[in-house]
Amino acid sequence: MKVRTDFVLKDIGQLLTMDGVGAAGVGLIADAALAAKDGKVVWAGSADALETHCSLSGNTEVVSAGGRVVTPGFVDSHTHPLFGATRQDEFAMRAAGADYEEISAAGGGILNSVKRTRSASDSVLRENMKHHLSIMLSNGTTTVEAKSGYGLDLTTELRCLEIAGDVAGEVPQTIVPTFMGAHEVPGEFKDRPDEYIDYLINEVNPRIKDQGIAEYVDIFCEKGVFTPEQATRYLAASAAQGFSLKIHADEFYDTGGAAVAVNAGAASADHLLSISDENIQLIAGSNTVATLLPGTALFLNKPFPPGRKLLDAGATVALATDFNPGSCFCDSMPLIVSLAVCQCGFTVEEALVSATANGAAALGLGGRKGVLAPGCDADIVIWDCVDFRTIPYHLGNPDVAVVYCAGLKVYST
Ligand code: NIG
Ligand code: FE
After folding, report:
1. At what angle do helices 257-264 and 277-284 cross, to 10 degrees?
2. DSSP assignment of 257-269, as one string?
3. By CB neighbour count within 10 A (0-12 exposed, 13-18 middle, 19+ buried), where does 161 fall?
């Protein structure tokens, strides 16, 4: 029996379904077509087979891709878009020789953003987030994870996540909110990180859960921030409260954060610039996604994450921007894909799968996002190129032509 459609994309020169079939998982189909109904993909395949499998009615919208490349929208599974002000002052200080950790130790860094987020109005927070989501959309990103973590007190963390929920209803993308109260130890708890963890577990997490405003919690496990023991304790308590887990791990030092993630059953361990060889094997043998953020390494002039080693070990690797006002002010997934290829040893195919299907896996959205197969959301990018390798090749200048979210056109050049 033929499947019904209300949207057909035809004349696709190269369709990358990311369904795991074809060269290195990109599921490449040349001369392809794709059909959707009610915002979901119902069929994708060779253009010749379209009419055999799909019924087109007078109401079916038929769009030509003009022989160009079509992919799923990017899934940016790690961003921090809820902040009161940018930090170009610190960027200039680093350019003049200061180090990121020195700036943080002197009261800059995350605590600088905390001050400016607590004092920001709701409308400033909302407009900042919306502004960057619209830039992300123009870069082909259709799903965005959004962390709080620049409030570090009950009032501001709740306010930020409520705003994220409001914004999610106003933008075309799918937003996945994460509570990151454990981003840093706030001034009120200076030198008392364990008491702050208790406060989060006993007073803040339950409120976030009651309001249903975050699916994930995240913690910054790093020398000078939270120890692996504190991270383990926080993640275990959060899991017991019903949250899914993420962790900022092994960013500047190998503290064993990746092992904390695996042992806690976290959905992902993120950053991993300094992950040990032993923990590469550990994460590769687990269900925890290794999320790499090469934009942060570039921005902070740190060594790039060991992408090739993780891929060779068999880890599921995702790529994301880490968009935030301090360590990576970058909204562009195409640039991240280029960095993964040019600096982290990914093939073009591996980088594109990592930025789509594997990003979805890091958010528990496998089978719904990042893939263009029947049943998945019709989140689609038409690229202004005829060879998919052009996507990372065209450095810093994404050739995004048209973006669809759930089958609706939401952006075009
Ligand atoms: O993911 N590493 C910790 N948190 C952010 C940086 C936040 C900031 O500098 O504001 C990150 O890189
Ligand atoms: Fe981050």
Report:
1. 20
2. HHHHHHHHT-SEE
3. buried
| 104 CB near ligand 1 (under 6 Å) | no
Q: Is 77 in the pocket of ligand 1 (CB under 6 A)?
A: no
Q: What is the pLDDT of residues 55-74, one digit of tens each?
A: 999 999 999 999 999 999 99
Mutate to test the pocket of ligand 1, among 324, 329, 336 (most ligand atoms within 8 A of CB): 324
**Best residue among 104, 145, 183 to mutate for probing ligand 1, ranked by most atoms within 8 Å of CB:** 183
Q: How far is the CA of 110 from the centre of ligand 1 (A)?
A: 7
Cβ of 81 below 6 Å from ligand 1? no
Over the stretch 115-168, which tens digit does the pLDDT of each residue have?
999 999 999 999 999 999 999 999 999 999 999 999 999 999 999 999 999 999
Instruction: Please say if the pLDDT value at position 1 is more than 90.
Output: no
Domains and CATH numbers, the chain: 3-73+370-412 (2.30.40.10), 74-362 (3.20.20.140)
